[in-house]
Design brief:
93 residues; 3 helices; rod-shaped; mainly alpha
Length: 93
């Protein structure tokens, strides 16, 4: 593996680790961030008044949205990380 390829692989490894961490943080904080988003929506759009069932539906939707984006980031970062590590290991042997 030449120097430019090593730089690219190391850069991709660093980016994949960052994406994995961001995805994990999103998954870990999805309930908190979903609650904040629905509260902000309720204050701005509904002037502080909303039916409980509607609030729960919106809360679940916001949480699921954040969970999906976190899962996608975590998955893509993991696949990129495994691919880069496979390239590094194959070039060493």
């Amino acid at each position: 593996m030449n120097v430019s390829n090593k730089v690219v692989v190391n850069f991709l490894l660093a980016v994949s680790v960052v994406v994995i961490i961001v995805g994990y943080i999103q998954l870990n904080n999805s309930v908190l961030w979903g609650t904040e988003k629905v509260s902000e929506y309720m204050r701005e759009k509904m002037q502080g008044s909303m039916d409980t069932s509607q609030y729960n539906i919106m809360l679940q939707g916001f949480i699921e949205q954040i969970k999906w984006s976190g899962s996608i980031l975590l998955g893509l970062g993991g696949v990129c990380f495994i691919t880069c590590m496979t390239l590094v290991m194959n070039k060493r042997s």
